[in-house]
Amino acid sequence: MSPFSKSLTWSGRRIFAACVRHHSSLTTELIENMDKKATWDRFYTENSSRTPTFENFDWFFGFNAVRDMIMPLLQTMSHPDAVLQVLDMGCGTSALGPSIYRHSPLPVRVTCADISPVAVRLMQEHVQAQAVWPHHPSSQLEFVELDCTQLDECFGLSSLDLIVDKGTTDALLRCKEGRGKAGLVLKQCLKVLRSSGSLLQFSDEDPDARLLWLETEAQDPGVLAADVGVQEVGELQGVCYYCYQVTPQPVVSK
Ligand SMILES: C[S@@+](CC[C@H](N)C(=O)[O-])C[C@H]1O[C@@H](n2cnc3c(N)ncnc32)[C@H](O)[C@@H]1O
């Protein structure tokens, strides 16, 4: 069994189990209001109360499924003596950000950001209790409460090397009021990424729909330009997962 299918099967079971366990009103709230802070606060509060000790909750799949996409890309971004700046956008209580911190042989500063203060607090308490050690002694890990439609209030322009987004844009795109926010988030990512940097969106949305959306939202003549690509992550129970890579391009003035 590949690392992908192993972790995906496990996460898939957990997501299914969590949805079944959750009160149906929460499931409805989640589906209709995935762009709302209060919905996610409730989700993480109820999820954490179900287990006596903290457990990471990973949407779609865990780090091992995408390790071979993230780690080689980080290697290509290394600049001498510099700490690579990584953002896990809408981190929830996923192990993705902490895993990058633990496994990167290059020094990284991983910021895990989420709109839900409940998720952020759970992760802060978890890493304090567990003492997660980095592969590189100069690496750093932090958790911040942040609305990712306002990334530029927290990060400088062209300051980040890599942004990972596992399920966050998907959550926004799936609810009526979230679509505008998803577009804003993408534009903010392109502002705060270095020219050599990339945004990786992990998603179950079909390339026919997502590529069109990305290409439309990431282009604004004279203002914004990006290259967009896709590769398959793998399949679970008939659902195919994808990695969309968005890379800022120089803007040609009109
Ligand atoms: C589908 S979950 C994915 C969580 C995590 N990335 C994972 O893989 O398990 C979507 C996450 O996005 C967060 N979120 C939603 N809107 C957000 C926003 N505007 N800014 C930051 N985080 C947001 C939610 O709180 C939630 O944790």
Polypeptide structure, described:
- This protein is an alpha/beta fold and 254 residues long.
- The chain has one domain (3-248): 3-Layer(aba) Sandwich (Rossmann fold).
- Helix content is 43%, strand content 23%.
- It contains nine helices and seven strands.
- It has helices spanning 3-21, 24-32, 37-49, 63-76, 96-103, 117-130, 168-173, 178-192, 207-217, and strands at residues 84-89, 108-114, 140-145, 160-166, 193-203, 226-236, 239-248.
- It has a seven-stranded mixed β-sheet, sandwiched between helices.
- The longest helix is centred in the first third of the chain and has 19 residues, at 3-21.
- The chain is globular.
- Bound molecules: S-adenosylmethionine (SAM).
- S-adenosylmethionine binds at residues 35, 40, 57-59, 90-92, 94, 96, 114-116, 119, 147-149, 166-168, 171, 181.
Termini, distance in Å?
A: 52 Å
Largest sheet: 7 strands, mixed
Shape-level CATH architecture: 3-Layer(aba) Sandwich
Counting DSSP E segments of at least 2 residues, the number of strands comes to 7
Please give the domain count: 1
Protein name: Citrate synthase-lysine N-methyltransferase CSKMT, mitochondrial
Organism: Stegastes partitus (bicolor damselfish)
Pfam families: Methyltransf_25 (PF13649)
Keywords: Methyltransferase, Mitochondrion, S-adenosyl-L-methionine, Transferase, Transit peptide
Topology:
Blueprint: H1 3-21, H2 24-32, H3 37-49, H4 63-76, E1 84-89, H5 96-103, E2 108-114, H6 117-130, E3 140-145, E4 160-166, H7 168-173, H8 178-192, E5 193-203, H9 207-217, E6 226-236, E7 239-248
Parallel strand pairs: 1-2, 1-4, 2-3, 4-5
Antiparallel strand pairs: 5-7, 6-7
Helix pairs in contact: 1-4, 3-6, 4-5
Residues 35, 40, 57-59, 90-92, 94, 96, 114-116, 119, 147-149, 166-168, 171, 181 line the site of S-adenosylmethionine (SAM).
